[in-house]
Design goal:
It is a single chain. The chain is mainly alpha-helical and 407 residues long. Helix 3 crosses helix 14. The longest helix has 28 residues. Helix content is 75%, strand content 0%. The protein has one domain. The protein starts with 8 loop residues before the first helix and ends with a helix. The protein is built from 21 helices and no strands.
């Protein structure tokens, strides 16, 4: 079983061994990492971490917890109404932030809520996990895998949104009804909600972080028209947030605790993880293994083949390594095939998180939070619920992609 703080070690040592024993030269690695290309992993990491800073700081203001509590207040005693409200809220917020951040934010709240209300929290916890991974497909910034696959193939923010809006909507709808059927008996029981009296303590920080996240998303959407790369916009936005917070703290003479906690929560392990996988894939490219994988997958039924195979590979090696691998594989096919394959692989990288906890970092983190909060949820339960949910959701998303690309 992977641990959240050590999942990068195996690919890191594999990359070191490949360089040390001549599988690939250090100069080749340096050229690949520092090259001014769309597939440059450093740009992709800067983009993701910068957006993460904006989203995590917004969470540190208490906004997401406040939002979840507001949903609880409006639910009454109907679990189905509450379930629906949480599902829609988490889905909506995920679109504009990141699946990993939403999972880490809402999961502890739902654990706490379940214990206080004395109801089974599993339907809410699993639906939140599914919603975050489903709606993380909507925007290019919703998942590191989206960023890697899309930017590696020269897809900009708006082009991505135009194609992925329909598959996300189809997947969102299919997931809701699948989850509703899965947990129907448990959700028929009434309960007594016990919302807390929460408020956003530092409203100035909330306004600053919300405005910057909104502005960053807007600028990312028009980045191709501005002639500015997405990573530059995201990095500048994160820098402005940091400077603004430090300035406010200096003027008001108090410690920047929210900023400190934000920087502590950033998933730094992604850096060695992605770079190590990039080295491994460079080696595979050097020996034409990625070309052989492309030949095996073929060019027929591209959406179905790449959609299903990406789910399989995500659960075999995790969705981030799968994305790095598939981005290289798709360099070996015709452009029109590559386009469909990229979007199908993006869908697979998100939906693949449903099948096993190791299919995505989100699953590893989610189970870790459950264990910390003493919620009993086994690997077998995850797979059982995952299969029931993933099959209709993947089918709906790939159908939506087919319609989107044909249109």
């Amino acid at each position: 079983m992977f641990r959240t703080n050590a999942y990068w070690l195996i690919p890191f040592f594999a990359a070191v061994l490949l360089i040390a024993f001549g599988g690939i030269g250090f100069g080749e690695v340096l050229h690949g990492i520092s090259g001014d290309t769309a597939i440059n992993p450093l740009k992709i990491l800067v983009l993701f971490i910068s957006v993460a800073v904006l989203s995590i700081f917004l969470d540190e203001t208490g906004f997401f917890r406040y939002l979840a509590n507001a949903v609880l207040k409006k639910s009454g005693s109907s679990q189905i109404k509450l379930f629906t409200a949480f599902y829609i809220t988490i889905s909506f917020v995920t679109v504009f932030t990141s699946n990993d951040i939403i999972i880490l934010t809402f999961t502890p709240f739902l654990c706490h809520f379940g214990k206080n209300a004395k109801i089974d929290p599993i339907p809410y916890l699993f639906s939140a996990f599914v919603a975050a991974n489903t709606c993380g497909m909507a925007l290019i910034i919703g998942n590191p895998t989206n960023i890697y696959l899309a930017t590696a193939n020269g897809i900009d923010f708006l082009t991505y949104l135009k194609v992925m809006a329909l598959p996300t909507l189809f997947a969102f709808t299919a997931a809701y009804f699948a989850l509703l059927l899965l947990f129907a008996k448990r959700l028929k029981l009434s309960f007594s909600p016990n919302p807390e009296e929460l408020k956003i303590e530092n409203k100035l920080f909330f306004y600053i972080s919300f405005a910057l996240l909104f502005l960053c998303t807007l600028l990312l959407a028009i980045s191709s028209y501005l002639g500015i790369e997405m990573w530059q916009i995201a990095f500048f936005s994160a820098c402005v947030l940091t400077a603004a917070v430090l300035l406010v703290c200096l003027v008001k003479r108090y410690r920047p605790e929210e900023l400190r906690r934000t920087l502590k929560r950033i998933p730094y392990q992604l850096v060695p993880f992605v770079l190590s996988m990039f080295v491994i894939v460079l080696t595979l490219e050097k020996y034409e293994i990625t070309a052989k994988i492309a030949a095996i997958l073929g060019e027929a039924n591209t959406i179905a083949v790449y959609g299903v195979s990406s789910v399989f590979f995500a659960n075999l090696i995790n969705n981030i390594p799968m994305s790095v691998l598939f981005s290289a594989v798709l360099q070996n096919v015709r452009p029109e095939i590559a386009t469909a394959g990229v979007y199908a692989a993006i869908i697979g990288s998100n939906i693949g998180a449903f099948l096993t906890p190791t299919g995505a970092l989100a699953g590893i983190m989610w189970l870790s939070v459950l264990k910390k909060n003493k919620i009993d949820f086994s690997f077998q339960q995850f797979v059982k619920y995952g299969l029931v949910t993933a099959i209709p959701v993947l089918s709906a998303a790939l159908l939506g992609l087919h319609i989107s690309l044909k249109g």
